Amino acid sequence: MIIAVDGPTASGKGTVAAGLAKHFGLKRLDTGALYRAVGLAVLDAGRDPGDEAAAVAAARALDLGAIDEHRIRSSIVGLAASKVAAMSAVRAVLRETQRAFAADSAGAVLDGRDIGTVICPDAEVKLFVTATLPVRTQRRLNELRARGEQISFEELHAQIAERDRRDTERVDSPLRQAADAHSLDTSELSIAEAVEAARRIVEGAVRR
């Protein structure tokens, strides 16, 4: 079984995907981490995230087992990720990585922004996870402050709004809800409630 989980930044899609993977005993791929890792690699190389050649080279050299989960979660890397993710050449490289992961006969949960529309359009179950911009900003702010990163709510709100704009307006694989995806708004849900709601959606879809 392939479960596709899409949604914007800090909507809760990663939490939902992780919970579903654990419940159903499936492996999981956070595809957003791939773009963050590429963005970080470009920054570490002293290059501009808008440099397509540098971004493509970083994507081709990406080692899934070597992604630094702590470093890729900074706000600066998030902005770099949104820039490299808008590049068709970068997406073409990482698209193959994602499809190879999903090809395992054991099944998988993939979360990102174009899983149900581009990467796994034939996924058995698709979810589109959303939350209001203020809620998403506060969630990400809490995460960043827990890491010791100082940023104002207003600045982060603007950054996330800009990332939403890039994600939804890019020409290649824009963020959008697949026609057959189930919508899940997590704005007023706890982590446990969001995962439980997603589990019910998946089990209901599979029974049909």
Within CATH, the superfamily carries the name: P-loop containing nucleotide triphosphate hydrolases
Mean pLDDT: 95
Q: Per CATH, what is the topology?
A: Rossmann fold
- Second-tier CATH architecture: 3-Layer(aba) Sandwich
Give the number of DSSP strands.
5
Q: State the helicity in percent bands.
A: 40-55%
* Cα Rg: 16 Å
The major beta sheet can be summarized as:
5 strands, parallel
Strand content: 5-15%
Low-confidence sequence ranges: none
In angstroms, what separates the terminal alpha carbons?
Answer: 14 Å
Order of helices and strands: EHEHHHHEHEHHEH
What keywords describe this structure?
5-stranded parallel β-sheet; single chain; alpha/beta; Rossmann fold; 5 strands; 208 residues; 9 helices
Question: Can you give me a brief rundown of this structure?
Answer:
The chain has helices at residues 13-24, 31-44, 52-60, 75-84, 88-102, 115-119, 133-146, 153-169, 191-207; strands at 2-6, 27-30, 108-112, 125-130, 182-185.
Overview of this structure, please?
The chain is of the alpha/beta class. It has a single domain (2-200), classed as P-loop containing nucleotide triphosphate hydrolases (Rossmann fold). Helices cover 54% and strands 12% of the residues. It contains nine helices and five strands. The chain has helices spanning 13-24, 31-44, 52-60, 75-84, 88-102, 115-119, 133-146, 153-169, 191-207; strands spanning 2-6, 27-30, 108-112, 125-130, 182-185. It has a five-stranded parallel sheet, sandwiched between helices. Helix 2 crosses helix 3, helix 4 packs parallel to helix 8 and helix 7 packs across helix 8 (153-169). The longest helix is centred in the C-terminal third of the chain and has 17 residues, at 153-169. The model has no long low-confidence stretch (mean pLDDT 95).
